[in-house]
Design goal:
This protein has 399 residues and is α/β, with parallel strands linked by helices. Helices cover 59% and strands 6% of the residues. The protein is built from 16 helices and 5 strands. The protein has a 5-stranded parallel sheet, covered by helices on one side. 39% of the residues are buried. The model has no long low-confidence stretch (mean pLDDT 87).
């Protein structure tokens, strides 16, 4: 299985990255790149695209292709075989020369980025390239982005920066001007459904409905196809348009939506936080019932801060997914009201869609769509989630 197999509907991107990986290998070995030239490879890449299109997946696959050690390469094979030690260690996150930069919180700080810039100045220890993959470049603070600029504009000859962001506008102009831009597109529902059948063994009918509901987000579609809880949460959200007939229903629906997001965040944090705390105590050699080692209290406080930030981000992301589901519902309603012949994202909710579509006009639906978008903007501005969602559900009732 090639490292590119997880990229769904991104043939053009795969072709570009494969050619760049061939050129990179030619640079290292001092040979001519078959069917290409060294200019296909550059030191900094920016991967953008809609949510779920696979920016991080593409960057990780490219990192694996750069470190590929397949013997077939000497015979003209494509880099990124997926089986060699280089590919395997990169994909598993254990390659010594590939650094993943992720954040569970709301931002990436300047301290972390300065450490990475220093690391980028050194040559790879064992692999062909030193690769630094920044999973959420749009979460860099201003100071962190300026620190990153220093590393990108003065690169080491064997260092490659891979930056992932939702759009090119989310990255400083001075950084994006030094990167080669790759824009991933939303994969077709048919391609996502085919992947779910082939890779996850999902029944074709279920795969098709999950792919439509996922709206091009591959991971979201996979969760809907294999996770019963994810399907249940989605159905709870799609009941909201039928429950906002009165103020009591509006407030009840809003409270349930916020409580569900909070419960999801707490469930995710419960085991992860406990393990992180236990690992931290073990690292400091803390023994139950004895005096805490020096430095443990400060480290524990910093860990608790990160965990709270992660919980806040998880609640926001869960609410964000719910609002996207709600938005897709009203988009389907609008399509029915306007007589569109396109496929509906929520075909399994056809009776509810027909009911809402028949009870109003397209103008009402557009106002409801704007109410959902206004709620998303309010959450981005750190408005209290319950207040923002209550305002939205009341607006949905008014139409």
């Amino acid at each position: 299985m090639s490292v590119w197999d997880d990229l769904v509907g991104q043939d053009r991107v795969v072709e570009q990255l494969t050619a760049a990986a061939r050129a990179a290998r030619a640079t290292v070995t001092g040979t001519a790149a078959p069917g290409g030239n060294a200019s296909l490879m550059t030191h900094a890449w920016l991967f953008t695209g809609p949510p779920g299109a696979g920016q991080t997946t593409a960057a990780r696959a490219f990192a694996a292709a750069l470190q590929c050690t397949s013997p077939d390469l000497d015979l003209g094979g494509e880099p990124g075989c997926g089986f060699c030690e280089g590919c395997h260690t990169v994909l598993s996150g254990s390659h010594a020369d590939v650094k993943y930069v992720r954040t569970d919180g709301l931002s990436i700080g300047v301290g972390d980025m300065r450490d990475l810039v220093l690391r980028a100045a050194s040559y790879p220890t064992g692999g062909k390239w030193s690769v630094i993959l920044v999973d959420a470049a749009h979460r860099l603070t201003e100071a962190a982005a300026n620190a990153l600029l220093k590393g990108v504009e003065e690169p080491s000859p064997r260092t490659v920066w891979l930056l992932c962001a939702p759009s090119v506008q989310d990255v400083l102009p001075t950084i994006r001007s030094r990167c080669r831009l790759l824009v991933l597109r939303t994969p077709a529902a048919e391609a996502v459904a085919d992947m779910l059948v082939r890779r996850d063994g999902v029944e074709p009918g279920t795969a098709r409905l999950a792919a439509l509901a996922g709206q091009g987000d591959v991971e979201r579609s996979r969760r809907l196809a294999v996770d019963e809880q994810a399907r249940t949460r989605r159905l709870d959200v799609l009941r909201i348009p039928l429950e906002v007939a009165d103020i009591g229903g509006c407030l009840s629906a809003a409270q349930r939506l916020v409580d569900t997001a909070k419960a999801d965040a707490e469930a995710l944090a419960e085991t992860r936080d406990a393990k992180e705390t236990e690992d931290l105590r073990a690292a400091y050699g803390a023994v139950e019932g004895s005096r805490a080692p020096r430095g443990l209290a400060g480290a524990a406080k910093e860990l608790e801060k990160r965990q709270k930030s992660r919980a806040t981000r998880t609640r926001r992301e869960t609410l964000g997914v719910a609002l996207l589901d709600l938005l897709s519902f009203y988009r389907d309603v609008l399509a029915l009201q306007l007589g569109s012949a396109g496929a509906l994202a929520n075909e399994d909710q056809r009776s509810a869609l027909d009911r809402i579509a028949g009870s109003g006009q397209p103008e009402n639906t557009l106002r409801r769509i704007e109410a959902v978008l206004a709620c998303r903007r309010a959450l981005d501005r750190n408005v209290d989630p319950l207040l923002a969602v209550e305002a939205m559900t009341v607006a949905l009732r008014a139409g």
